[in-house]
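Record type: ASSEMBLY
Status: queued
Input:
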Amino acid sequence: MKFSRLAVIGLLLGLLMAISVAPAAAQELPRNETLYFNGQQWGSVVGWNPYSSNNNNAMAITQADSARVIMFETPYLYNMLDGQVYPLLADGPYTWNDAHTEITFKIKAAAHWSDDTPVTAHDVAYTWATHVKYMTPTGAGNVDYIEDIVAADDSTVVIKAKLSDDGTAVNPLIVQAYVSTNYVIQKAWTETLEARANFDATALLADTAEDVVYSGPYHGYFWDESKVIYIRDDNYWGQDASMWGKLPVPKYLAHNIFADNAAGTTALKAGEVDVSQQFNSNVQDLWLVDGLPISTYLPEAPYGIGASLPTAFYNLNSHGLDNVAVRKAIAIAVDYPTIIANAMTNQSATFEQVPRSLMNPTAGEQAMYDHAAVADLQWAGNDIEGAKALLDEAGIVDTDGDGWRELDGQPLRYVATCPNGWSDWQAAIEVVAAAGAQIGIDITTNYPEWSVYQTVVTKSDAPLPEGYDIFMMWSDGAGPTQPWSRIRKLLSSEFIGMTSNWNGNWGGYSNPEADALIQAIPTVTDEAQLKEMYTELVRIYLTDVPSFTLMYRPQSFHTVNESVWTNFPYDGDGTNPPVPPLDMTDGWGIAGLYNLELVNP
Amino acid sequence: MRYMLGQIFSSVRFRIGFSIFAFILLTVLIYPLIITEPPLKTISRGTFLSPGIYVNVYDSIGFSPQYTLLLDGAAERRIAAKLNADDRASMKEWLVKAGLPEESIDTQDTAALLEVWHANFDPTIRLPGMTNADRNYYIRLNTALDGLLATEGATIAVPDATTGALKEQAVVDQTSYVNIYEVPNSRVFPLGTDNFGRDVLTELVAATGVSLIIGFVAGTVATVIGLLLGLISGFLGGFVDDAIIFVTNLFTVIPSFIILILITFSIGQDKRGAITIAVVIGLTSWVWTTRAVRAQVISLRNRDHVNLSRLSGHSTAYILMADIFPYIASYVVMAFILQVSSGILAEAGLSILGLGPRTTEVPTLGLMMNWGMIYQAHILGKWWAYFPVILVIALITFSLNLMQTGLDRVFNPTLRE
Amino acid sequence: MTTPMTRAMLEVNELTTRYITRFRESIYAVDHVSLSVGDGKSLGIAGESGCGKSTLALSLIGYYFPPLHYTSGEIIIDGRTITGMDPDEVRKTILGREISYIPQAAMNALNPTQRIIHFIEDVVLAHHPGTPKKEIYERARERFELLGLPASVLQKYPVELSGGMKQRTVIATSVILSPKVLIADEPSSALDVTSQKMVIKMILDLMDKGIIKSLVFITHELPLLYNVTDDIMVMYAGQVVEIGSADEIVFDSVHPYTRALMGSIIVPEKGLRDVKLTAIPGTPPNLKNPPSGCRFADRCKYVRPECRVAPVDLHETASGRVYRCIIPEQELRTLYEHEKR
Amino acid sequence: MPGDPVAAIAARMAQGMSNATGVQAVYEQYTELFGTDKPIPEQFVIYLRNVLRGDFGYSISQYPRTVGDVISSSIGWTLMLQLPAILVGWILGNLLGALAAYIRKGFDRVLMPASLFLSNLPAFGMAVILLVIFAVNLKWFPTSGGYDYAMVPSASWEFMWSVIVHYQLPFWSIVLITIGGQAIGMRSMAIYELNADYVKYARFLGVKDSKIIRYVFRNAMLPQITGLALSIGTMVSGALVAEIIFSYPGLGNTILTAVRGGDYPLISATTLIITWMVLLAFFSLEILYGLIDPRIKAAQSE
Amino acid sequence: MNMKSDDIILSGKGVTKIYGFGPNRTVAVDHVDFSFKRGEVISIVGESGSGKTTLAKMLLGLTSLSDGQIYFEGKLRDIRTHRQKREYWKNCQAIFQDPFASFNIFRKIDAVLLDCIRLRHGRRLPDEQKVEMMREACRFVNLKWEELTNKYPFELSGGQQQRLMIARIFLLRPKILLADEPTSMIDACSRATILDMLMDLRSEIGMTPIFITHDIGLAYYVSDTVYIMEHGRFVESGSADDVILRPKEAYTRRLLDDVPKLHEEWDLSTV
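Status: finished
Output:
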């Protein structure tokens, strides 16, 4: 038949095309030298430009809260488990001057770039200067708090805080966080880039920068639509005795790009992924049902360390939501155990285990407020009767007999929303809506596309439109400025009316008392005073309920398959300082890469 | 009419298709009368409960009549379930690695094994080659072994309201049994629960109803548009025909699913109701009907009976309705059936892409599938959360298509044997 | 029989065939038909639509496939009985070689996507496997040219031919293996008069040139039949009602039905306008459930009560006329005379 | 249209900024770059002009990658997957349909409902079922991707083999849903042809059944070519879904990412490319049909 | 057949019909002139593709003219509006070739006949009168109205359907009747019945029948005046006897020669 001949030709043509599309390169990665990840990289890598936020290069370039990435290094490493910073590029701890306006630290002599030139204080200074010159997010985010960063000599860096009128630093907390949250870029390379971009900000940020010079242990090896592979730089300075004294174990770090969580989970089950950073629902089934050599940081629920607080915000301009009774009633009626069991498949601590506050469940932050002082304000949810009583007491009752309560003659009717396709949030929002029905408040749900959602929520210079009465957003995870920064973003009125508010307090909450406390905390150094202030903020938060946390979520999910590699960090693994479950590419988590062992060497 | 129905029902295909469809439709109508619970109610805390009968544990302990059954091997079965051969082998492996002589461990003798185990096991010891997953496994196993060989009953105690001291309330013997039908609180989940903890069967029935409505609305919209355009284009001819044909060709070439994606995306999720989606599907899928109707009308418009009707002084509108439409009615009905089934498929396809309707009041088959897949039901082996959905979609479209081919054979005698 | 007793090329005895409908009903469209065509002779079959003449044409070939089924009777071609033979044997040795067929709708008789020569190859190879293509082509060219068709037709697709040309191609293809008997079923009814004439001439040429030995020609057009065949057989409701020579049937028929049929002929000849055409009221009987007596009884002018009692046989009178009526020949002739006056 | 596309990029840039003017500056920079500050009709004209020049502009979700770059890296996979799959499905479907029409009886009674049922499985349903059975449970085939997880593309045989293995499930899931519909169409066409006069005539001339079947198959298949041309658009959508389920790195996933990221330039370009591909397929099939079917040839030469 | 007069009921000048344009352009009817006398039986004879059916459609007003004019009763025919068309169709009706295709199978016989009454008499007649009219029409064509009422046309035989067609004409009483191959699809035996009825009807209501046919024998049998049509033109016309018995044009002669006859030798050598 002529037609089947045609098909064969078509097939051959197709294959030919595949060959021509595929660049000729190396072979298969040796399994015993490669550590596979999932959940970090969605979509293909776009670029390698450390100044840009558009690289879509989560492991090598994009700075998360804990900053350090595998390709670029910060002066200090933050460990979310103990809240301490440890020197990386820096040599020894940094010091504040007596006036608490300047930070000084030295750069390790051994530190050098991938082109073998040493890392100097000038690189640190120029990195900052470039951020400011081109108004990158880093520059814009810190320029109000950092006056300048200068190189006193080749190895000494001085960070000068911006001073307020009284001569004290505006915000020493942010200044001090800079050293562990912003990586250093080579001055020489930056100058090459600037010349290439003709000193134009847009062109500079749009450069894919494949020639970038880095100081970290890994760099890009291969990337396409289906994967990105990083290879270890065996000339990495970190093997110097002044740092780790050795190289990280895997030669390759590889991240296959999956279409969705399901594909990622399948690969994890198949042993094609060693470290999974994605949300694997019902993760315990992987070992209980499937008997796979898979484990999480904690052996039992919640399986990981919660570090962020996905939160439902109230739009305080919506009818009735300016009333604290309504806000609190909804918040206490919500069935949190179901959210945690169903939306998070138990991968969150419950509010009985970790009572609600403004702190994440790590021991460090939990110690920062007085639990007993606010115990009677904390709620664990499912308090339908309490909520009803609260509303009745406030005179918010059903006057027209339709089953829904009215305030000032107007029914309480809200839309609860979160981005479409964010499965765990959507499941949580459904539970919130169900709580409304039980207490006589009509809450429907609605899930706009993320592109719409984020535009609406972040462009908050205008009041939030209809349909954004109760909406979910994240709050900060662990970091050197926490919990202050998280509290600021939840409660501070300074963000109201910003053109593009990516920070927080999207509901428009304003409380001068809270503002004053937030303003004061960064300059306070006395532990007891701090604790008192934080406790007061928690009290305000739990009393006014401008938003309410729905669950605890880990900074990164951390599920590992031990069919090839073992000795991943786990709770009580004996490491000191403890290696946090941060998928081993961020912050102190990278230390985990040095401890890996092969199951079958 | 009766003759016509007789003809139609003489087709085996039509009968089978009709039976399946009628069954689905009846289920959709009758089921909610029996299970009155709202379909979207979260009924389980914890997701993907597997199909089965769930009996309230509290009630079965305290309040049901309890029976003593003297069954042989009840204890053995319990031990075998909690400590199977693999577990025993693993225990032996641990003990041997911990330095015990291999021959001193008898995995068959449960009591001896447990004794050695309890004497030696220490969760903090890290043995060579043992992964964290292994360690967790042994810890879980160790916990499960508690009270494994106990022969006495379990004591139920209640804390005293004032002192908090535990007060014995009852003892449940190992020989106590309850009849699950006598336990007042039990619930059957024939298809388990889904990722939201909803009863899959109840949700499925409601979703089927909504999907049928979507299909019906989409089919109606597509058929009405297709019919009107086809009639006008075929009968009037000329410029109008050219214009309609141009648009039709355009819609034929551009994959309608792509148009559908573009439109639904542009509408935005918050404004996509089930009916909106249905209408949009209808708006993008009228092309085939238009083509078929137009071709039929062109072959009809110069027929003598049409000419005769004109000669009898009938108006164009009347001729279209009385002399053309009845002749193509069977095609239109068949096209409608196909449109309904493709409407249901289109909704499901859109939902898989996350472009499905905003149905927080009611589910659709596509959304159920979408959620099942987002929560990885297919990867985790939770077949009840996605397979029945696929099956129902296939059965609906299959039955509709069977009916359509049955009709086709009745109306198109050339296809008969 | 009126024809001189030459050797019979085609002989059919009491052939009965039926259609089985999808509702499992049987329709006896050919009911105990007997006929005989001698060497060099032609037989015409006439009748109204639905009388079974086309079914008879299909039945004569001896190769049956649903919905047509053989029931009883025999077909003898040149002394060889083909009924009861293995169908595949019939296909290989009889079809196209002994007996061939020209279909009614020549327009669609050729595979639209095949060149004529390729079809001829298939036909020849089905009977003479292994014949070189070259030889087949030569033979086809020869045959086509002999029949006045250009050889270029062989390389064409059916769509490239006009209606008349197509029909003539079909005829030439049908006789490519020089069958003894040719069955032509309304070969010209869809054509213009001019094409019709060419087709008829070609069929008669086949006889003249000895390519075929006998012809069975079926049509509802009586003037045509009169001009083409030696004998004419008239069918009504699946049965033969009268057989005779062409002249006898057209100008001197005995059976009332034949008589009426002949009285409805219109030809553009002098005197036509003075003739009063005859009409037969009513419609032919339903063959699913035919009347038990004379099948023409309901429409017959001369019907008598005894007509409806028992089936009427086809019988030969002393004068050699063969017809199916209980009224004696002489009595009928008297009736007709009476009528005229 | 929902969402301000530029806001998405600006927001990414502005993440963590807490001073309004900085954000505003970033936003304006990109507004200018994407031309969204101009009136919509003008934007459209500019877009059209650029598209005609083959310039689809920047992708928003993958900025600073260009749309052309994004599409060119996935279009090869899609072509390689869908073209053969649709063709093979079409051929197999036609063969089965013709067989069903010819053999009838038991074969037909089993095959027909089976094809009908198959063709009525939603595209994703078929893909998921194949995925669960052959990849998740039996582990005969990989679950996702275009080639082995541990491989780096190269012109080696191992890589080719890996591509072929990964190819199977998406390929068969498209083939299987294509087969059903084609078989049904072919069966009706073949029955229609089997009743045609030329079949009867050929039989009466003693032509062998095997030959006659060839006539019928060929003649019934010709209209199926037009059918293929007309339904190729529908098939492509099913095929896109299959790509998504198997995380195949083709246009299906590109569309999905584009939709999720509100990436208008990418969505419209992908749509345009797919439409263009379907058009191309459509016209090549029409031309092919004209070449193969003498009836069309005759009609054209008249 | 003695109702001849010189009164022209229908005439045409340069009547032309062109289908399509560019390479697909076909001239179906090419500037034909004619004048049909009231009361005469006229036949237009042509082979398939000669344009006779197109001409018939133009005469009926079912197809527009590409060029030329048609005059009805001496006046230029104007049927641009639906109302004008209805008026024209009161006077000009048709019988089509295939009785099975001529009726809407979804409409009952009563409805078909009532349409005619309505077209002729409007809507105001009392029901009894309508029934009486239908009864009479059926009687005329030898059918029983009682047996037809509530039946569908397809339940009748071909001959009966064609008679029903004539009943329609009986009710409408048009001045002109175009009969497009009225007997070609029915058996020879029923042919006479139909032709007789048409002729009876003609004398009954005084209409002018125009036969459109390929059958030159039929034309000769029924008509007073015969028009021979070839390739969209009239090649010959005149009284039936003149044209058929003494044809002048070669085409007519060939047409006649090619028809098999009973009393003359059919000369096959002329092919």
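Annotation: Chain D is about 80% helix and 0% strand.
Annotation: The mean pLDDT of chain D is 79.
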